[in-house]
Fold these 3 entries.
Entry 1:
Amino acid sequence: MIILALNCGSSSVKYSLFDWARKQTLAMGLVERVIAGGSFIVQSVPGREDFRLEKECPDHETAIDLIIRTMTEGPAAVIPDISAIAAVGHRVVHGGERFTCSVRIDAEVLEAIREVQHLAPLHNPPNIAGIEAVSSVLPQVPNIAIFDTAFHQTMPRHAYLYALPYNWYERYRVRRYGFHGTSHLYVSKRAAALLGKASCDCNLITMHIGNGVSHCAIRNGISIDTSMGLTPLEGAVMGTRCGDIDPAIPHFMMKMENLTPDEMDNLLNKKSGVLGITGRFTDRRDIIQAARQGDERCRLCLEIESYRLRKYIGAYLAAAGPLDAVVFTAGVGENSWLIRQMALQQLQHLGIHLDEQRNREAVGGGEKIITGDGSPIKAFVIPTDEELVFIEDVAAILDGRYAHHMEFTYSFARPDFVPR
Ligand code: ADP
């Protein structure tokens, strides 16, 4: 069974083609500058040189057609023809309250995704465009939706409701949804396997720290709270997003600098976070290097980011505890021993005993424990694999083996699973 995974953004389409029987990625690629003009495709195939072709894609349908042609014809082909593709999995950012797990897309599901697009006006419309484009280019192939929000739909009301006029929730469904669901799902199942426990017996804090950053409090294997909210802007300090701030600040700054609501929104999403603090960097590697060379603002940025991580650990320890483990994942979580060390320092009183040597050695891949042997609460570094969750959901839905992620046994939940 060959599965095409698609992630359609407003001006890009990322894809990967996966052979389920052989458990191997056949090709990965990206069409950039869709609609914007100057579009091109880049495709990587293991053992081959990258393939690049410039071709105008004025819409998502042309981009998807280009992807299909690249995979099936000419020098970059990896499958003989489109009939080899058994299904297409679509990343859909917002599933609102309706979608609590991955689903096969039909007219009614597509309409329901449309109904919640006001909650993610930048993300859901291109996701919908991708679904419509595949339906037109590959009309016989089943489409499956995998939602960023679905894993967090187990949160209780007291965690997802804001202290705002209640009718905002009733009228517009203003509430916490949370994102990065497939990543939190994957690393929480892996952590349970590393602990030698059933997932439903584990209490965890999972920290996805990349450009986007979100944390999840997991009790008995399910999400009971998460740091991102109605949108991905809430929570931790991120690459360019501010995370938690006094909600009065936007109004104050709009008056001070005569900003429109859209300008304010752009500043909080694109010019804040570690970029805002340092004034020049989003990549934590640049920040760490500059801090080592004595840049005060970069040093301050590391202190702010790691302090906020520590505060979330404290808060979620209270929410999810008694805790089994804290898990670090994504670009920063998997690779930056320094940020992990700064976040976990002096937490012995909470039962987290960092082993500095293990932590320094846990970089560049592999699942590692970074606390000392006697630590009551463990800390792990676990490389995330969102693609695998995606592919397993699609394969299981096609086979009729999946009703809901909570009742489904993923391959990576098994103790003998070997990460890719
Ligand atoms: P996203 O998918 O949200 O774009 P990633 O999970 O790929 O982000 O993480 C990207 C970030 O990971 C980069 O911005 C960089 O800051 C960080 N990163 C990667 N490697 C390292 C490293 N060795 N040390 C510190 N940060 C790193």
Entry 2:
Amino acid sequence: MPDLLLIGGATPVMLDRLSAAFTIHRLAELPSGWLAEHGDTITYVATNGHDGVRPDIMAALPNLKMISCYGVGYDAIDTDEAVKRGIMVTHTPNVLNAEVATTAILLMLACYRELLRNDAYVRAGKWESEGNPPLTRSADNQTVGILGLGRIGQAIADKLAPWGTTIVYHSRTPKDVSYRYYDNLTDMARDVDTLICITPGGPSTNKIVNAEVMAALGPEGTLINVSRGSVVDEAALIEALQSGKLGWAGLDVFEAEPKVPEALRAMPNVVLQPHVGSATVETRAAMGGLTVDNLLQHLADGSVISPVPECADI
Ligand code: A2R
């Protein structure tokens, strides 16, 4: 059986299916020096969007044919190097669109309706001792700017329809949709109530939500990030929230996960989630299924179901 390097975890169902076709080597359990000595035996890698494949590991696998990534974001995998070496890279698009969209809207609603503040209010007995809490803002009839109107961005727009939302968007190229397109992110931020970030990570989106964009969003504005922590300048975000230049933030992703700055943890106008955009039993099962299907299909006939765009022609 071919040798597969498993980076990070895998569900029992994935492991059952993989172990029927591959000899699995778990990176976390390998003795030091193993890769240097036996790296040439590894032809397949299964990893996830967070761990990706470190450059030193990729370099230690001279006969690698394929990397299957559990997750749609693959910014932790060097696809330029993969293409150069003829290594196929796959990911798990589409199966998580609806779940990540739900997470984005959950964060947005929690910000508008002060879900965490009101929950704490009831738990602390303040409803009884102090009466009704202050009013919140309505999430209905807002203008929402989607940064990255791709598969997930479109699912977010679809799911926001019942709230009477006006959708606008920014990406590098306009899409074939009826929503207003902005070619400039700051201009869009100025015109919207909420900005939802759902681009890929990587160099082209690094800190594109900067101090200027947050100031344009403004004191009544809400920033939701369900993309990658790298997309938002976290230091500028903290400053904007502390100074009142930005009103609220709902964050599922952070610059140095799982580390979340103490300043963010202490703020009442922030809703925090531990990168759980797609983390439901149902969606993770679908992602795991596609991760394994890609590997098994490549093993069977050299083709795959969902290559990353850079590897579509390999
Ligand atoms: O820029 P375009 O026209 O290629 O549109 C894509 C947009 N996008 C960007 N927008 C502004 N500045 C950039 N530098 C930039 N780079 C890409 O993001 C497209 O509209 C969107 C990405 O859509 P999809 O490729 O369909 O990705 P999907 O499945 O929606 O997932 C997005 C990300 C993942 O990469 C993970 O990081 C995260 O959601 O879970």
Entry 3:
Amino acid sequence: MSAEVIGKSISELRSMLKAKTVSASEVLESHIAHIEKHESEINAFLSFTFDQARQQARTLDQNSGDFSDAGAVLAGVPVAVKDNMCVSGKITTCGSKILENFTAPYDAQAIVNLKNNGALILGKTNLDEFAMGSSTENSAYKCTNNPHDTSCVPGGSSGGSAAAVAAGFAVTALGSDTGGSIRQPASFCGVVGMKPTYGMVSRYGLVAFASSLDQIGPFGRTVEDTALTLLAIAGHDPKDSTSLTAPYRNNNPKGFPELTLSMIESLSKQSPAELLKGTRIGVIKELVGEGIETNVRNSVLDATKLLTALGAIVEEVSLPHSRYALPVYYLLATAEASANLARFDGVRYGLRDLDAPDILSMYNSSRSLGFGAEVKRRIMLGTYALSSGYYDAYYKKAQQVRRLITSDFEKIFEKFDLVLSPTAPSTAFKTGEKTGDPLQMYLSDIATIPANLAGLPGISLPCGTSVAGENAHRSEMPIGLQLLGAPVSDGLLIKVAYAFEQASKLKLQSPFLR
Ligand code: GLN
């Protein structure tokens, strides 16, 4: 049975479920068996929620109408979720010792939406502690391995989710992206990953890292699977004050295609050239030059040639303030994190040092014992940036430059429909290669951070592989192409990504799917 459903897309599974060649419970058990066979090589998960998934599958099987075209979009689809989203009754660690015994009292809104759409939630995936990192090596529990080469990192911070999808453990997965944590691991693992427009998906029940940047989004092996998962989780939520309301979503003067089921289904009825005709795409000059590996640059430039050949209008554009994006991010994200993480004090949540003689030393030692080195570094940096006397020089200045970066994009989107760049400057690196040098690690996000600062949607999809042997110790590894659009252009990004995926005919399967 396993070989028949592992690696299948959502629409393939739906036809099989509809035709009753397989039941939801069988789809689930096959995925569980595949996980049990290979998880020790990948370490994608921190915990499993098989009991809830089995219950959901049984309910679906007893009500087979759910697999009809009118049924829930993810009926019977196994999905993995990053362990910084609350699943009711389950441990939510955020990859941190400080939350090792925290049981979530409710479902995050994105989880409610997944469940209402029939998804089978397999478990909670590994991440860098509190989503701070680019390799999943900052998890307090384990390192996740890249399914394309298990001696390499899967990227991060949503490395467990990206690896789970690439290894065929889950059909799709959820991650969170504050500075690139969905797109960069998608690029490293050869899957599709999307950060929606800020406010598209509710952050209710996502443990906050940097609230003005955090956004939940999907991973899939195909653009269509990614789009269907986004459709399932998106929507206004009054419990998140930054959630987009219907008038804003529909305030779409440029006529971006709205992300609906019929829009997604219509994609396969058109050729890539029909989908791309007349689309104006800017190639971000600052992100295809210095500091980008040759393999990656060549692959992205080949992608632009293909898009041009298909009828898109491709020109170089400049984001003059993009060189400040990294320092701005590391001031704002750490400032917000220092405030958000203040709640983990040994009293309200998680780990407490029971031997501390008094309350102040209890706060102190609970936090010292519970947080890892990277999280402590960020809390100190953020507290410094917000402290009196430095606030104007750092936090306020960073906010002003954030505005300039947003304006750069606004100017570009007056003339272009979307912009393109590599997702990351390199392919997946070796485990341990960058752990001693935080700055090198931070540079992994140079291309992804600007979209978070400006609240824009971004998608990463495979556009090629590195040449084996060209880069000293690397085997052939996936390369990601990033597309960024104006606010609420999520549907357009899906459309263009779909056209590219069909035209490039890339099939980047990890050895676990072959
Ligand atoms: N790698 C970036 C960081 O360490 C982004 C993390 C994220 O998007 N959650 O902050």
